[in-house]
Amino acid sequence: MGGLNQFAAMATFVRVVETGSLSGAARAIPSSLTSVSRQIAALEAQYGTQLLLRTTRRLALTDDGRLLYDRAKSVLGELRDIELSLSSRQSRPSGRLRVSAPILMGRLLIAPLLADFLRRHAAVSVDLMLVDRAVDMLEEDIHVAIRVGRLPDSQLVARKLAELRMIVCASPDYLHRRGVPQTPDDLSKHDCLVFSDTPGAGEWRFRASGKTDCKIQISGRLWINSLDALVLAAKDGAGIVRVPSWQVAPEIAAGRLQRILTAAEPPATPVHLLLPPSRLASPRTRIFVDYLVERWAGSRPFADGVRPT
Predict the structure, then answer these.
(1) What ranges do the domains of the chain cover?
(2) Cβ(167)–Cβ(308) under 8 Å?
(3) 185 CB-near residues (< 8 Å, 6+ apart)
(4) For 166-264, CATH number?
(5) Burial class (CB in 10 A: 0-12, 13-18, 19+), 193
(6) What is 3-87's CATH topology?
(7) Checking phi first, is residue 77 left (phi over 0); if not, alpha (psi -120 to 50) or beta?
(8) What's the predicted TM-score (pTM) here?
(9) Per-residue confidence band for 199, with pLDDT thresholds at 50, 70 and 90
(10) What are the residues whose beta carbons fall under 8 Å from the beta carbon of 130, sequence distance 6 or more?
């Protein structure tokens, strides 16, 4: 096995390690499971050592496998550097771009910008995936992800786009019937409408004594995995909801919802663009990131007309 075949087998081996299984690598490449198995077997025969330990639940690396994985990633990274350096000279970025974003944000703030982007870059196609969860960019082959909230340490490149504020509100009818909470602790006596896929105990973050953050346990009466649906329920008087301020700014201005617990609102939450390490980012990824930063800087999408307290 020599030349390009060996590099292909090394790339397959890296993908097997990163996905945790032969079948996962086959789906991600994409390739057949038989082809992936043959390439791994050929690598083990080439180097005369076992690289992977097959367990009932997951593959594990041997010591030699760990050594090859680290070296293979480095070698393949250098090859990608060369490829991207050459491709960046092209006058027209091209290819398919997979973008992930939260559902509401993607529907209202990103999708409307795509027509202009596609007109500017005729050789680029966009696959926009809207999900309210943190995607695995490698496993799901995502080139750009928009993430709300503080980020864990990772090798991904993060570019801050904006900040948004989470506020608590309810309909005037509900507050008239049940009273207005004066502190976050008062929420235990109220019906809370909670954004989540899994009903149970939830947490809302507040600012205590104007300085430090605190988390309040919420036992909601209504759980929905759609911010739009939660706002509709709140307008109908079902309870108290915690949502991004920009989403409900028109409802508050029109008096259909009333903002409460303003003194306890936590600091603004950052919104980031995540992309692979800079040496792996393709030209089409870079132009999309620059485009989104440019458009959002001009439109201020999270402006809500309410000054922070």
Answers:
(1) 3-87, 95-155+278-299, 166-264
(2) no
(3) 216
(4) 3.40.190.10
(5) buried
(6) Arc Repressor Mutant, subunit A (1.10.10)
(7) alpha
(8) 0.62
(9) low
(10) 100, 101, 102, 103, 106, 107
